[in-house]
């Protein structure tokens, strides 16, 4: 539930910030998108958002992006560092608009530690519906809020963040969210334990029992990424020692690195 809300919020903010990027950032993104280091993030699929009509749902494009991303091997730590370094150098103003640090040497460590868990969650699939959990949840949100488009997703997310628009209970407490919570609680136990009481009050005690619901499977490819070199990011070693700000920075950077590519053209 926490990861889904955070991801939705950052997608909205990311789209809003990306639509007004500077020429310097545009040049940096063109370079990054063509680099082998970014291939593991499947940036080319997000470029299709540029061609998406402002009144057309972005959910199918996001689904295509995630489906391709999940089929690729995980980014290596060196690839994440290269993308992070080039992005922070080329787009400092845009990253600041997202509330992200541009000169914190610890940020890339947070990104590398949080990335495997975030990728794991984004690649969850509901086999009964035969679609990714992210697609399923965004569709359910869209059914309540109206079509999510490139022109309104930031404002819709703002309404959700302000409490003026509710996320359906089927999303916040559904099987997909429970699976995401289970993954997060295993990889970040110190962090997630602080949300247990609140989560149980909202979704019931069974939501936090540590079990993955039937019909939810992980689709993230575990094959070694061919982009970059160095150790891969397919494990969560050391991640449990991160605090809330560390996970938020890592999550923010993954979303920023991905969503901002959509508007570089």
From TrEMBL:
Q: Taxonomically, what lineage is the organism?
A: Eukaryota, Fungi, Dikarya, Basidiomycota, Agaricomycotina
PROSITE patterns on file: PROKAR_LIPOPROTEIN (PS51257)
The protein in question is named Uncharacterized protein
Signal peptide span = 1-18
Locations of Low complexity compositional bias? Answer: 219-228
Q: Where is the composition biased (Polar residues)?
A: 202-214
Checking PANTHER family in the record gives: SPARK DOMAIN-CONTAINING PROTEIN
What top-level branch of life does the organism fall under?
Eukaryota
Alphabetical keyword list:
Signal
Q: Where is this region: Disordered?
A: 202-236
């Amino acid at each position: 539930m926490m990861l889904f809300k955070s991801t939705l919020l950052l997608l909205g903010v990311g789209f809003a910030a990306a639509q007004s990027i500077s020429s310097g950032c545009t040049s940096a993104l063109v370079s990054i998108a063509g680099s082998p280091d970014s291939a593991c993030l499947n940036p080319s699929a997000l470029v299709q958002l540029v061609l998406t009509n402002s009144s057309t749902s972005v959910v199918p494009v996001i689904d295509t992006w995630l489906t391709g991303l999940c089929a690729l091997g995980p980014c290596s730590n060196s690839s994440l560092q290269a993308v992070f370094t080039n992005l922070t150098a080329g787009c400092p103003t845009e990253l600041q608009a997202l509330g992200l640090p541009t000169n914190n040497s610890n940020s890339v460590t947070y990104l590398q530690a949080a990335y495997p868990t975030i990728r794991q969650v984004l690649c969850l699939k509901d086999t009964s519906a035969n679609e990714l959990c992210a697609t399923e949840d965004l569709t359910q949100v869209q059914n309540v809020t109206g079509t999510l488009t490139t022109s309104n997703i930031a404002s819709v997310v703002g309404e959700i963040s302000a409490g003026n628009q509710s996320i359906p209970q089927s999303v916040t407490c559904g099987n997909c969210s429970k699976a995401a919570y289970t993954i997060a609680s295993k990889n970040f136990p110190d962090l997630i334990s602080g949300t247990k009481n609140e989560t149980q009050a909202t979704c019931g005690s069974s939501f936090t029992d540590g079990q993955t619901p039937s019909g939810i499977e992980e689709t993230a490819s575990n094959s070694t990424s061919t982009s970059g070199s160095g150790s891969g990011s397919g494990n969560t070693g050391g991640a449990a020692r991160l605090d809330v700000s560390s996970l938020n920075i890592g999550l923010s950077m993954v979303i920023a690195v991905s969503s901002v590519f959509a508007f570089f053209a």
